[in-house]
Amino acid sequence: MKRDKLILRHRKKLRKKYKLLIEEAYNFRQTDHALSDISEFKAIQLLDKLNKLKYLSR
Fold it and tell me: Which of 15, 36, 45, 49 is deepest in the core (most CB within 10 A)?
């Protein structure tokens, strides 16, 4: 049980950070394309980690 709670807590933290990065990428899209791409790339990496954790929590 303890491990499941840790995984869920970590997923929640990563999901929050993912949403912030996506929002940041969207906001930079009009002004600075390079920063937008960097934020989007980091968000994609986080999404990959989230999917791995989702698989582990099954």
Answer: 36
